[in-house]
Amino acid sequence: MKEAIVQPNLKVNIIDSEIPIPKDDEVVVKVVVSGSNPKDWKIPQWYNKAHNSGDDIAGVVHQVGRSVYEFKPGDRVAALHEMMKPGGSFAEYAVSPAHTTFHIPKHTSFEEAATLPLAAMTAALGLYQRLEGLPFPWHPTTKPTPLIIYGAATAVGAYAIKLAQLSNIHPLICIAGRGIPFVESLINPAKGDVILDYRSGDSKLVSDLKTAVDKAEIGGKVQYAFDAVSEHGSSQNICQVLDHQTGQITRVLPIDEKDQIPESVRQSMTHVFAVHPDADQQQFQKETGSKTGNTEFGYIMFRFFGRGLAEGWFRGHPTEVVPGGLGGISGALRNLQEGKASAVKYVFRLEETEGVERFRTN
After folding, report:
1. What is the β-pairing status of strands 194-197 and 56-64?
2. Distance in angstroms (rounded) separating the CA atoms of residues 104 and 75
3. 27 - beta bridge partners?
4. I need a labelling partner for 238 at 20 to 30 A (CA). Which of 21, 93, 201, 305 fits?
5. pLDDT at site 360
6. Which residues, at least 6 apart from 300, have a Cβ–Cβ distance to it below 8 Å?
7. Could you give the angle at which helices 155-166 and 117-125 cross, rounded to 10 degrees?
8. CA-to-CA dists, residue 254 to 139, 237, 263, 271, angstroms
9. What is the dihedral of CA 233, 238, 240, 241, to 10 degrees?
10. What pLDDT is attached to residue 263?
11. Are 271 and 154 contacting, i.e. CB atoms less than 8 angstroms apart?
12. Counting Cβ atoms within 10 Å, is residue 179 exposed (0-12), middle (13-18) or buried (19+)?
């Protein structure tokens, strides 16, 4: 099979590799479309390690391990590959744990499905596992629950908005830039949702945040914040209005040197690999010895996404198909590094790769 190896300098080598063989609890998927994420360029550089860094899989099941009971060859699926492990999505065939694989309906395109696994699960983990006290979508709140989402046009931020809407979390105070027109299509102004533009600078943004909080008639307090940017002082700006006694903020990157978060504000980091066994136990698991936690949460939420796609109340992120299949990865990752993508996910059709046969449906 053809496989793309991303170098630390973001050059991509397309090599011939063996089709992977699944372990007992794994699924091998024939990739029709691979998604991409900013981590796909960051990790090769951070770790100075060349590897197949793709994690977003959409395709059809090729083979399943002995313990897998939900899937069979030919099933249409989307899946999250386990980060840094062999079998990434930048290849004709990729590997995913069964619990991070989910069925997709016939009316959902592989392009749309490829936008979901990493970003949607990151949003879900942040809202419901890291920010303690927010209601799940199947038990929405009936009282005002303000939430700040910084980076609302990013895939993670947009999925956070979609999930918050299902949980009836309002008002949403969304922060975006070029993607503001897209974010406008996601929010509900009738419930107090607003969008603020960060491009006028930190001082103006903080002033706008304070005005938005005052106008929201929520007692001047915001308890929850999801920072889907987590750099360039974003968290520090949020903390200017976050309640310093009860406030919680979750970030998608380690603390930035520009961010000064008050010690009284509960902060956490949201990383999607938490859904894999033994990767990141919740505090309650450590305290109680519980056998359930983020892995089971991931299992449930991936299937929740699949049901949402089937029923029409959950959708993927806008896409831009990068020409050339695996041959287009290098340019796309450079665009991500340079911040050129806004309100869009770059996806790659494997059949457009030189030397790869065209995908045919049954």
Report:
1. unpaired
2. 9
3. 64, 96
4. 305
5. 75
6. none
7. 60
8. 31, 16, 16, 10
9. 170
10. 87
11. no
12. buried
The 10s digit of each residue's pLDDT in 78-116 is 999 999 999 999 999 999 999 999 999 999 999 999 999
Burial of 339 (0-12, 13-18, 19+ CB in 10 A): exposed
Secondary structure of the chain as H, E, C letters: CEEEEECCCCCEEEEECCCCCCCCCEEEEEEEEECCCCHHHHHHHHCCCCECCCCEEEEEEEEECCCCCCCCCCCEEEEECCCCCCCCCCECEEEEEHHHEEECCCCCCHHHHCCCHHHHHHHHHHHHHHCCCCCCCCCCCCCCCCEEEECCCCHHHHHHHHHHHHCCCCCEEEEECCCHHHHHCCCCHHHCCEEEEHHHCHHHHHHHHHHHHHHCCCCCCECEEEECCCCCCHHHHHCCCECCCCCEEEECCCCCCCCCCCCCCEEEECCHHHHCCCCCCCHHHHHHCCCCCHHHHHHHHHHHHHHHHHHCCCCCCCEEECCCHHHHHHHHHHHHHCCCCCCCEEEEEHHHCCCCCCCCCC
Q: How many CB atoms lie within 10 A of CB 194?
A: 17
**Cβ distance 175 to 232 under 8 Å?**
no
Q: How many beta carbons lie within 10 A of that of residue 182, not counting itself?
A: 17
Q: The tokens 């940017």 sit on which residue? A: 229
Other CB atoms within 10 A of residue 241 CB: 22
The answer to whether 152 and 296 are in contact (CB under 8 A) is no
Edge-first strand order for the sheet with 266-269 is 194-197, 172-176, 147-150, 224-227, 248-251, 266-269
The residue assigned the tokens 């999801």 is 226
| Per-residue pLDDT, 333 | 98
For the chain, residues with pLDDT lower than 50 are none
